[in-house]
Every structure is written in structure tokens, then in C-alpha cells.
Amino acid sequence: MPNSTQGNVRANIPELHEVNQDPDDGMTVIPAQDIQNDTEYACPVTIGTPDTEYACPVTIGTPGKYLVYIDVLDSGTNINFYLRRNVDPRLRVSLACTGSADLWVWSSQARVSKADMEGRGIYNPKKSRTSKKLRGHTWEVRYGDGSSASGVVYLDTIVIGDITVENQAVEVARELSDDFLQAGCDGLVGLGFPRLNQVQPNRQKTPMENMIEQGVIKDPIFTVKLDKRDSRGFYTFGFIDETVHCSKFYWQDVDKQNGWWEGMPSAYIKIGDEIYDRGPDNTAIIDTGTTLVLLDDETVEKLYSKIEGATYDEDQGGYIFPTKAEIPHLAFCVGRWLFTIPGYELSFSEMGNGMSYGAVQSRGQNRQDILGDIWLKHVYVVFEQSENPRVGVAQRS
Q: Where in the sequence numbering do the catalytic residues fall?
């Protein structure tokens, strides 16, 4: 701990603990504690009838029998779907957004060109024996990056792994913004709290909400482990994977009032060897649908002041720095615990001319930090959607 009290560096913080990254040094490989069950990982994906049966994550229509991990692609939080019959061999659905609560998919009703449909996994509710249109209901979602989608709603059966969920609202896309026309994903499964669901006039239950109410998972949890190029990423539903090499879990209550996994105290940040006090009211959201880490302007400026040659680029709308610069390690606070990411992760993308775009940027007018995928790649997180929701975070080695 630093002894300096200059600026907002806090001296001797006895209640703050840095999580040990080595599970063999005084810590054990993930104890499941009181949350564990026999429910297997997500997988078989069928949209419609058996003629369009997929061999992986979300199944809409006819249940499947396969049991595999929901793998996460290197490129981020997309899920790779392998189709079995006469369809393009890749269907990628982003199953990553804890900041939304809508399950929506590309559909045969989308008002797009045939060229835009090429190579996509398309849901046709007319070919599903279990689909039923929810008359008078529509939906529209808008995301922080400006992308949007809208359409109508059907009820259908979905299968995630060996977990069958009946009467799930499937939001069928009719209108899609250009962002989604260019993106590789074919839909999105929101894992936020029900309040965020955008179906009108009556909000519909999320897949996680239905899993819990229908009793198809023993414990109301899902877990996220994103790929950081040393092991595959995955999601689980209903149980914790005890094989992940990481520290024990550290638990923190969350506030579900606004629908996000938010409200976690994040009063400190460690930059290199210094810990800075950001005030007791600073809180954070964990969002798998956000790529970067977003912090208040003062903290962002403090971070980049530690990197020689770093500067704010008006054209890029964020901080850039020399690609070969020495970058300090960072540790972000969840409750009383600091979770570390190595300095090299701060280089999000190369801009050319020897400069890189930073992975930590301003949160703008948002009142809370957003801990996105850059941070999530270095932890294993349990999201417990119980009456008193909480998250468990473990530092990965």
C-alpha cells in the first residue's frame, strides 16, 4: 500500500484487498460454495423444425440432445453455432449482453435484401411446430453504440444445453440497423434483469427468468468466462465450472432496480503500484455487452498521465498512446477487492503510425463505471439472479 496522501492517493487502506492471481498460493481452485448443481452446459441450437437443427447454444423450436460448452469466439463475446443441415456452417449469436434483457433473432420476416440474408441462420416461425404469435406485441431495442432492431414477438420453446424452456418470448427482427447488417451475429440473448425487456405493451420474461420459474435449473445462476487467448471462453447455466484455474470467489451484492448488474462499490483503482481513492459513492456495472472499460474522466486522465506519449485524440474520441510504451498494470475494485488486468491489455487496437487506441476510456455522462470484456477476460464471474442478487468474481491466473 502507498504511504503518500497527496492528491487522491489513499494511505494504508486496511479494508482493501488485492486478489491473488495464483490459485496455488494460499487460494484454491474455485470452491462452488453453496451454489452448485448437476445442470449441464448450454448447447443444442434448433431454430424452427428438425430440418433446421443446429448443434450448439440456443435452440428455438425443437429440443436437441447435445451437451457441450457454449464456446466464446476469440473476437469477443460471440457464440459459435455449427449448423447441421443445408444452412451456412456458421451461425453466430451474441449471448453476452448482461446489459439487456431481450432474446431476438434474425428472421425470415426481416426487411432486408437477399444478399444481407446470405450465410445467416434465419428463424422462420412458420416452420416451427411450437411457435405461436403474441398478437399485438412489438419490440424495439437500441444499444449504446447506436445500433437498433425491432419487430414482432412469438412464443416458442428454446433449449440451452439440456435445459428446455417453454413459452419463451422470441423477438423476431423485421427492421435492423446497418450495424447489424454488417455484423456477424444473428441475434442476441439478453442476460440482464427483467425490467430491461423492451416488449410492448406487456413485458415478457427473459430466458433466465423462465429457467428459474420453470424449475429447469437448480440454482439461479449463470457464469461467464471469456477467452483471453490461453483457454476457450464459455457460459454455463445453473452451475459453476470447478475446473477453471483461478482464485476463490469474492461475493458482492448488486442493485437490480434499473435492470443492470450494477451498484457494486468501486471506490478504488490501482495504477501500477499506487492505489487511488475515488470516493465511497463510486459504483460499477459489469456488462458483457461492452467491450472496453469505461471510467470517470479524472481517473482516465490520471491513468494516461502514467503512459509516456499518451494523448487524447479528438478524431478517435478517446486516448491513444505509443504502441511500444510501457503500460502499468491496472486493478479495478469490486467491493473491497481489487482484480487485476495486465498493462498490455490497455492496448485495444493499433491505430497506425505506431499508436494504439486505449481499452480504458471515458464513461461520459454515465454515473457508474462499466467493467466490460477487457476486464472480464481476466476474471471468472458468477451472476446469481436470486431474490437478493449478487455476483461472485474470481481472479484468473
A: 88, 287
